[in-house]
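We modelled each protein-ligand pair independently. The example shown here corresponds to the flavin-adenine dinucleotide entry; the chain sequence is given first, followed by the ligand as SMILES.
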Amino acid sequence: MFTLSFDQKILGRFSRFLGPDQIVTDPEQLDMLSWDALSKGRLHPLRKPDVAVPLCVVLPVSTREVREIVLLANEEKVPIVPYGGGSGLMGGALSIKPGIVVDLRRMDKVLEIDSEARTATAQAGVVLEALEKELNKKGFILGHDPWTLPVATVGGAISTNSMGYRAGIYGSMGEQVMGLEAVLPNGELLRTRAVPKSSAGIDLKFLLIGGEGCFGIITEATIRTFPQPEQRALHAVLFESFEKGYKAIQAIFARGLRPALVDFGDGDDEFQGGAVLYLAFEGNRQVVEAQEKLASSICDQAGGRRLPQEKAERFWRNRHIIARRFIQNRRQRRERGMDGVYWDWIHVALPASKVLPFRKSAIEIIKRRRVQLQESGLWIQPELFSMRLGIEDEGANNAQLALEETVDELLRLVQKMGGSMEYTHGVGVKLASLMAEEHGYGIEVMRRIKQVLDPNNIMNPGKLGL
Ligand SMILES: Cc1cc2nc3c(=O)[nH]c(=O)nc-3n(C[C@H](O)[C@H](O)[C@H](O)COP(=O)(O)OP(=O)(O)OC[C@H]3O[C@@H](n4cnc5c(N)ncnc54)[C@H](O)[C@@H]3O)c2cc1C
């Protein structure tokens, strides 16, 4: 007797409500969408995830279709991976079990721009840059401005609670969300009210903000937007050392100034030993001028030397170049680090009082483990600290292990010092094993919520340590 294979059965059921161009089974496409922007060289060699070829990719165009897909996946007990721009760096959109990739990029409509409310409502698959362009036509900006503006989607940015170059005044993507619509793992529809503040119980949008698709699929969001800034002031300032620059940044915040951007680091080859601060203020002209003046005098007093204006302008102009390159070399990026030159980074949040002590201890750990420190830096706030590390194999074959053990030791030290192991890229599979230490009993709370909403564990299983 002829029996349908499991895959054929699923495809047959999808074809009842999706058109042929909404179901992808081409092996090359399946391979491409089984992976995101995580490089293999950044994985701990003893904790490599199993990667599976998806059964298929589906491309819904409406919330109704997303619901049908989730209900079917539940009946058949097949895992689902929500997929946006695929630019996540932690493996949140990796297929680690054969399942259904739900690619949301055809849900690409900007549904409403409400100029009076200063909000935009968009489907989850809208690419951030497309939303930005629509808003610009009406005199507004999105505010959220990550490197990956040309590729990341509204849903992906909310699901990772991503942060961009101007987060100092506009906040992270999660902070911009007023309300959202999502299909929960059991197929029910959750709609939270698009208001700036409510005290009517727990705000359930936080199940989805930073949820990496484990608690549902975001289908729509209403986002706070901002008027086009009248003025932007950019500065590049050189400090003799990281510590001196850090003190200046702390003083800027202590005086109540709110730079849109702080980008500070000691990795510029042109100024070895020194550290360069890129500072941006934007918004109302008078406010920008007053903030700029005060910030300049603080930097002068701390021994900062203003660099040519063109350096600051170039930095700003080029901020999305790396993402445009990523669009061209997605596939190669996956293999990065497999040629014996490994690099990885940490982006951690610490109390401001702990940043310099952490940096000092981290440098000792890095030296002891014979790993190279390429840069340490800050982004947006003095509390948000990063380090880029590298190592070459030189035939010893244990370099990747040495690098990843160093990363683990640094992240555990951050947690011990009261900080958080990641402030912007999420957890995915890369940091899943550290989630219990990060959250204590909190991870159990997350697991129980997930069990209730997702009894068949179909929604992006294995991510966030769930
Ligand atoms: C070169 C480069 C530069 C980067 N720069 C930045 C930066 O400046 N700031 C920053 O924060 N990050 C940055 N990133 C990381 C990445 O761009 C962000 O994490 C981005 O927010 C991911 O959006 P995406 O649409 O590509 O999501 P994806 O990678 O597709 O997905 C990310 C996670 O969200 C889930 N997901 C996707 N869509 C939905 C949905 N609709 N509902 C529920 N879950 C969903 C996925 O399952 C996955 O877990 C960078 C990445 C690269 C490669």
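Residues 112-227 form a domain with the Uridine Diphospho-n-acetylenolpyruvylglucosamine Reductase; domain 3 fold (CATH 3.30.465.10).
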